[in-house]
Write a structure and sequence with these properties.
Layout (H helix, E strand, L loop, with lengths): L22 H12 L6 H13 L3 E4 L6 H11 L4 E5 L7 H4 E8 L2 E8 L6 E5 L6 H5 L2 H6 L1 E4 L2 E4 L5 E6 L12 H4 L4 E4 L5 H10 L14 H12 L5 H12 L16 E3 L3 H17 L7 H12 L4 E2 L1 H5 L4 H17 L2
Helix pairs in contact: 1-2, 2-11, 9-11, 10-11, 11-12, 12-14
């Protein structure tokens, strides 16, 4: 993992604005979620940061780790309209986007659109990799364009529109890996670790039936939109922008700038969308900490989750048991050394 020296990298003496007015609201949301799901503060921090940045989240982990409870609680605490889709092998695209039905009226028969569950503010796509690739792709336009097009007519989705998708590890039976184009639509991918002994003990002592307390509303929809607007205004020093650009550029195996350690293991590089989302999530992490400017540590914390699922590895890496987040961490260390010695 990257060292703490990354926080000490030069920032070109650029001055930061003094205040982040609504970051305390976001901190309250983060603290409340930690009282719902015990023992996973890093997961919750990255989830809330992506939420504030306006990015969709993919959670991967075995069943029973609290992914669904966390999603429902976040929607309830932000008073957003919430819908859930259980992805199964027989789920059809129309079950997500909606469809036209024929109905009889006084003027005769006509087609009427019946909106699907995607027409909401907060959508949980549960076990998304159990559905067919065609059905998975039905979410693609909604996630990237915030719109649904059927029979040549486009319908906009209201803001905010946020998708949390959960998936089981690809080694489990009955799963269909998400294609790269769909993975790229998720701002972050987070691997949900198992619950530790201390959190389990607290859960056993405090929750006889295993259920968390009902979540309370922390912020309104308008407050959330204002928080997202303020995240966009978090100051990005020039040194941080250069750091992000260098980080993404060095993942391209076709480029002379590619990191020598990574090059033998990479098939395809991180897309430009990865650089954009890394910047946005880093801004949100700074906002959560009530800081008005992005630091190197924000980028380092976000990078494995934002870039890991966008970095496509070759068979050599898979054979050697090397993962994309591991390579991103190694790249962070190498770039830190470059900057410190430049």
């Amino acid at each position: 993992m990257h060292s703490n020296k990354i926080n000490q990298l030069p920032m070109n003496n650029q001055q930061l604005p003094d205040s982040v007015p609504m970051s305390s609201e976001a901190q309250t949301l983060y603290n409340a979620l930690n009282e719902i799901i015990y023992g996973k503060p890093d997961l919750i921090r990255m989830l809330v940061a992506s939420f504030l940045a306006g990015g969709h989240v993919l959670l991967e982990g075995v069943p029973g780790l609290g992914k669904t409870v966390l999603s429902k609680s976040l929607a309830a605490m932000t008073s957003l309209d919430y819908k859930r889709i259980q992805f199964t092998p027989d789920l059809l695209p129309a079950d997500i986007t909606g469809t036209y039905i024929m109905e009889d009226t006084a003027e005769g028969r006509r087609m009427r659109f019946m909106p699907g569950p995607v027409f909401t503010h907060f959508l949980l796509a549960d076990e998304i990799n159990r559905a067919s690739p065609k059905t998975q792709a039905a979410l693609l336009e909604a996630m990237s364009e915030q719109a649904v097009t059927l029979m040549g007519e486009s319908r906009q989705l209201e803001s905010p529109f946020f998708v949390i998708a959960t998936q089981n590890p690809i080694e489990m039976e009955g799963t269909n890996p998400l294609p790269e184009a769909q993975l790229d639509r998720f701002a972050v991918k987070i691997n949900v670790a198992s619950t530790g002994e201390e959190a389990l003990l607290r859960m056993i002592r405090e929750r006889n039936d295993g259920n968390p307390p009902p979540p309370q509303i922390i912020m309104s929809r308008q407050t959330l939109l204002e928080c997202q607007r303020q995240v966009d205004e978090i100051f990005l020093p020039e040194a941080i922008a250069i750091f992000i650009a260098r980080l993404v550029a060095q993942t391209d195996p076709q480029s002379s700038e590619c990191n020598a350690t990574l090059k033998p293991h990479i098939r395809y590089s991180v897309s430009p969308r990865g650089a954009i989302w890394l910047t946005r999530v880093a801004r949100a992490l700074a906002f959560l900490d009530e800081r008005s400017g992005v630091g190197f540590e924000d980028v380092a914390q976000a990078a494995p989750h934002v870039l890991g699922h966008r970095l496509i590895l070759n068979y050599t890496a898979k054979f050697d048991g090397i993962t994309a987040p591991q390579l991103i961490d190694k790249l962070l260390v190498d770039i830190e050394k470059e900057v410190l010695h430049s």
